[in-house]
Amino acid sequence: MSGKRLHAVLPRLTREGGAVADDGERTRRPPTIVDVAARAGVSPATVSRSLRGAGKVSPATRRRVLEAARALNYVTSPQASGLVTGRTGTVAVVVPFASRWYFATALAAVTDGLREAGLGVLLYHLGGAAHRDAFFEELPLARRVDAVITVSLWLDDTHKSRLQELELPIVALGARIPGLPQVAIDDEAAARTATTYLLNLGHERIAYIAGAHDDIELGFTSLGDRLGGYVAAMEEAGCSVDEDLVLSGVAGLHGGDAAMTELVSGTARPTAVLAEYDELAFGALWALRRAGIRVPADISVVGIDDHEMAAPLDLTTVRQPVADLGHAAATLILDVLRGDTRPEAATTTFPTQLIVRGSTAPPSRSRKRERATSAPAG
Amino acid sequence: MSGKRLHAVLPRLTREGGAVADDGERTRRPPTIVDVAARAGVSPATVSRSLRGAGKVSPATRRRVLEAARALNYVTSPQASGLVTGRTGTVAVVVPFASRWYFATALAAVTDGLREAGLGVLLYHLGGAAHRDAFFEELPLARRVDAVITVSLWLDDTHKSRLQELELPIVALGARIPGLPQVAIDDEAAARTATTYLLNLGHERIAYIAGAHDDIELGFTSLGDRLGGYVAAMEEAGCSVDEDLVLSGVAGLHGGDAAMTELVSGTARPTAVLAEYDELAFGALWALRRAGIRVPADISVVGIDDHEMAAPLDLTTVRQPVADLGHAAATLILDVLRGDTRPEAATTTFPTQLIVRGSTAPPSRSRKRERATSAPAG
DNA sequence: CTGAAAGCGCTTACAG
DNA sequence: CTGAAAGCGCTTACAG
Question: Could you tell me which residues are beta bridge partners of residue A171?
Answer without folding.
Answer: A149
